[in-house]
Amino acid sequence: MEEKKISYRAKTDTVCPICGEKHVREEMFSGGGRLIAGKVNKELRMIWAENKKWGKICPLFYTLDVCPSCFYAAYPKDFTSVDPDEQTALRATMEHRKELISTLFGPVDFHQDRDLLTGVASYVMAVDCYHLRNPKLGPTPKKAVLSLRAAWLLDDLFAVAPYRPYDKVSAFYKKEAAANYMKTLELMQTGDEPIEEMAGYLGPGADKNWGFDGVIFLNASLTLHYIDEMANTVKGKSDILEKTKRYLSKLYGSGKASKSKPGMIVDMAKDLYDEIGARIEEYQKQLSLD
């Protein structure tokens, strides 16, 4: 029986700019009815339906380029564009990355075809690496998306290995995503990282780029969920949610006035806007009693 192929290897080697190791990037085949779209959840993640012919496929596994030797990971566009300072920092943290992956997942071999374990490990490593990248690459929004995708795949891993604390690790990365989505909105005002570098990486899924609408929505959704860990006082929480609500009003308000906005995200933004408003009211009542 002919083996059903989900991915293939690139024809040319990729040379790691950190350690000099050569590897062949794995790419996912497109077309052929391999991907069957399901529902989009409240975190804007497409839940792909299982394909009877090809099995369960997750396109997120193939997004990042990873060096199997030093565990440097990045989007393909950024993989080789490493300046000397970045190179020094990424080389110095090689053992840290290896220890992190070993602690979380045990032995991981990136010479093999991608699966759930190598998929999630690639995002964990990429988040770690983008902490060390130059602001000219727009690392903040990339870390937001990468952290959220890491959390999604950690949720998937927890579903098959509930005896490991992957749910807690997932929560950590969702909080990382929340912090970086908020910073991304601030960067849109300050211009400290180039907006044009952000545009193609906002996802958050591999199927659709929700763009800055997605940034606004996910900032609000994740902030509301993790607000108790983002501030220590009632006033601090209220102030953060007030700011978040103002950002969200730009999506909800413009969506009502524009037919170009996807109805799904506008409807979800309305519900979220109401939830945040109700939470702010709770905080204001608490403050009035103090």
Largest sheet data: 2 strands, antiparallel
The dominant shape is globular
In what order do the strands lie side by side in the largest sheet? 1-4
Number of strands: 6
Give me the secondary-structure category. Answer: mainly alpha
- CA-to-CA gap between the ends? 73 Å
Helix-strand pattern: EEEEEEHHHHHHHHHHH
Characterise this structure.
The protein has one domain. It is globular, with a radius of gyration of 20 Å. The chain contains eleven helices and six strands. Helix 8 (211-225) runs antiparallel to helix 10. It has a two-stranded antiparallel sheet with strand order 1-4. A two-stranded antiparallel sheet has the order 2-3. Strands 5-6 form a two-stranded antiparallel sheet. The chain has helices at 76-79, 84-92, 94-105, 116-130, 139-160, 166-190, 195-198, 211-225, 227-230, 234-257, 263-289; strands spanning 7-9, 14-15, 22-23, 26-28, 65-66, 73-74. 37% of the residues are buried. With 290 residues, it is mainly alpha-helical.
Tell me the layout of helices and strands.
Layout: E1 7-9, E2 14-15, E3 22-23, E4 26-28, E5 65-66, E6 73-74, H1 76-79, H2 84-92, H3 94-105, H4 116-130, H5 139-160, H6 166-190, H7 195-198, H8 211-225, H9 227-230, H10 234-257, H11 263-289
Antiparallel strand pairs: 1-4, 2-3, 5-6
Helix pairs in contact: 3-4, 4-5, 5-6, 6-8, 8-10, 8-11, 10-11
